[in-house]
Amino acid sequence: MASIRDVAKKANVAACTVSRVLNGSASVAEETRQRIEQAMKELNYIPNELARGMFKQRAGIVAMLVPSIRHPFFSSLADQIEKELYQQGYKMMLCSTGDDIAREREYMKTFRSNIVDGVIMGVSNLKDEEYEAFQKPLVMLDHKVNEEIPVVVSDHRTGGILAAQKFLEGGCRNIIHICGLDAPEVLSFQSHRALEEILSARGVQVKAVEIKWSNFDFDGYLELAKMILEKNPEIDGIMAADLPAVAFLKAARQIGRKVPETLCVVAYDGTYVVDTNLLDITTIVQPVKEIANRSIGVLVDLLEGRPAKPAMNMLEVSLREGNTTKSRIPS
Amino acid sequence: MASIRDVAKKANVAACTVSRVLNGSASVAEETRQRIEQAMKELNYIPNELARGMFKQRAGIVAMLVPSIRHPFFSSLADQIEKELYQQGYKMMLCSTGDDIAREREYMKTFRSNIVDGVIMGVSNLKDEEYEAFQKPLVMLDHKVNEEIPVVVSDHRTGGILAAQKFLEGGCRNIIHICGLDAPEVLSFQSHRALEEILSARGVQVKAVEIKWSNFDFDGYLELAKMILEKNPEIDGIMAADLPAVAFLKAARQIGRKVPETLCVVAYDGTYVVDTNLLDITTIVQPVKEIANRSIGVLVDLLEGRPAKPAMNMLEVSLREGNTTKSRIPS
DNA sequence: TTGTATGCGTTATCAT
DNA sequence: ATGATAACGCATACAA
């Protein structure tokens, strides 16, 4: 690999002059510039970004950590984030933890070692102190650590409210919500709070069933769904992320439960998994594009030392009405 | 950020002694080691990988370039590749081109600048010379440049043969194959060759319709499918990647075409998009895990200077039989 | 066992 | 307009 000094030698100048041509950082005589550009071409020279990064204390890379790259929500989000980063002149390093705490911790350690400039955390199973001890710009998704670290999150409370209304309209009495872990800092759990608040006030039963996102095994979801529906015939409403929601629809069909007549299903996320389904699924849609845009906006501001925006960034969800829920109670 | 010299100062030793403790590269007195480890802890020291990489001429990062991170096939593959890389001690940098040639070229340039050690090319729209001029280990997916650059590819010819058999069994007479571009170096086109060879020998019409992978817009696929089915009522067989295949199934249902009675559909890839469908879709399955394993095996061998394996790595596809095709011609 | 000197490739500062 | 020098943080060869 040709270095800047090889180019300098070939063009009969000092290395720093080559550097000046490279960066346009100072005026160089036209004739000298030509010689240097010629030499760069002949040597097929490309600057070493490692050395550059070392000098500038900046790698030009942002890491994103997710539970699974395959997961449709995270792959859609990562796709958008990469696009945003590209526009801002950064590269993305996408890593996945498989929801394994040790791997998350290990990656966080790697990220501190100057290989990346900042991190988007799409997974967060460590203790708050560990995020607070991270000494670089960090943006958390769906997880509030404290008042300092920026967080980008969908308005899950509204998501829960919208879903609750659908269940009420459908006259449902026994709801199961397939969801993530319950912890005060896990903001997506707000959807469950809202659901429960509204529905139990109307005497509707709501039960949470916790699963891990990274157990991203559709057949497993399908078995779970079948088991739940068979063991609990009184269940008449399901809220779940796109993938488990689809699993319930498939399970319902297999055991002969009619949707939406005897079972209402609301999917949560709105990835292409709902689009590709033959049914038109009622869905709470997270604004993936806006999440990506806001996350990178906040992170790049931090990276480039611009004034900080508010730490809490909440974005609107929307309801897409399909026919896996009933619009009105038949009277 | 504490540097190795800060640690050295605190522990009253020279920097190289700290380095020795870090790497276990030479014996250090037990008491000295303790002092150093203590100092590292107190300073919350983490080695600077940029500096390390600069010295070692190695970044510990492998790039993967794909047309779209969202695409279920590529996100599944990227997920596996990341796992394989992690096991081998490398990080992955995942980038997408949106099938834009300029972006692919730009990324290739970035990848040469010592920021990554090698590249997995999941997209390849440049001229062969550009890949040949790349001076680092490269593994191409589905694309043969020459006899030197390693390529990992599914046995698409067999894929085409398996599909052709299904169409023959179903008595289909007019097939449409939704596929990528036709070029000698694009190996996935072999499936089309095989399909045509076998079917036209039996007097079955086969027509190729080219689409771009990155136009990853399900509604667009759906419109296309509806248009094709309505304008060509004689069509009785479809082969397409998972996503467009599902679009055809949805379109068929919308315009009242019966599957598999009057329309057979074979999906190609076998991502979870077919799993999540309510129908049981006949599918040619690419061995994603094996592709990832072989790709990284070959690449890491190159990176670590081990003897090169054969350049051509072809992996077996399999048929998963569903009920979007007929098993026997009703006589 | 430990320390000194040097280089990896780049760029900023200061000098000419 | 151009060059010499030093520094970024680390790891090696060599010396002590």
UniProtKB/TrEMBL annotation, chains A, B:
Residues 2-56 form the HTH lacI-type domain. The keyword DNA-binding applies. InterPro entries: HTH_LacI, LacI/GalR-like_sensor, Lambda_DNA-bd_dom_sf, Peripla_BP_I. It comes from the Bacteria. Keywords: DNA-binding, Repressor, Transcription, Transcription regulation. Transmembrane segments: none annotated. One of its GO terms (molecular function) is DNA-binding transcription factor activity. Signal peptide: none annotated. This is LacI family DNA-binding transcriptional regulator. The lineage of its organism: Bacteria, Bacillati, Bacillota, Clostridia, Eubacteriales.
